[in-house]
Protein 1
Amino acid sequence: MPHRKKQKYLLIKDLLKIERPRERLLKYGAENLTNTELLAILLRTGTKGKSVIQIADEIMQDSGGSFRGLAGKDINEIMKTKGIKKVKVITIAAALEIARRISKQILKEKGII
């Protein structure tokens, strides 16, 4: 039986500092990060087999590439992603709720709702 190589994955610490999501946010501003990079910042860490960027990318792909898609997902559905446990899903849910409240406040101030 041939020996299989383990799949190589890229850790945040393996990236050049300027390529790391947190550093990119500081240098270029949050508006210039991808959805995956923003989510990776919230998630903070990956797993033994997956970097946080890979986990964030998987979640975004499963959500149609948008935070709106992610907001429509059930917490238990998000937790099916390897590496996502209660603390990470709570962080995601809290961030999405903050975004909902900001949107609602803006709509109220504009008299739309």
Protein 2
Amino acid sequence: MIGVIGSEHLQPFPQPRGRPGRVARPKKRKTLTASQLKARGWTEGLIRSVLGAPDKRRKNPNYRSAAPLRLYFLGRVLDAEEQPSVRARLEHIAELRPQRSATAKEAAGRSRQKNQARAESGRQPRPRFNAADYRRSGAVREPHQAGRQRT
């Protein structure tokens, strides 16, 4: 649509692709969250050392009080993954993952057995220390009685 206002000629608006009447919007850059990076094999330390500060931050959609989402541009992540040093670190992490998983499962099993044995023995865990009860028992003198002797 070409229009004339006064003596100025207006250029036609670019027609957006898709439905008629829609305004064309700039394309959004694809981003990955820190948890998506971890699913790709990255660790928190690797993210900090290689990528540094996030490209964007966004409110956490799941928990309002949680820390904001850290977003990293996909192109930057792919470029980093192509570097030989980063690729070697990612492969090393992938090799260690099964060993770490097995160690964690063993520790959880030991803890489970210990708790089960404690429950079966009928032994109760020690009660929490209550300072007020301890003072009332007379084992400790109150500050105002410190100078007085007991009779």
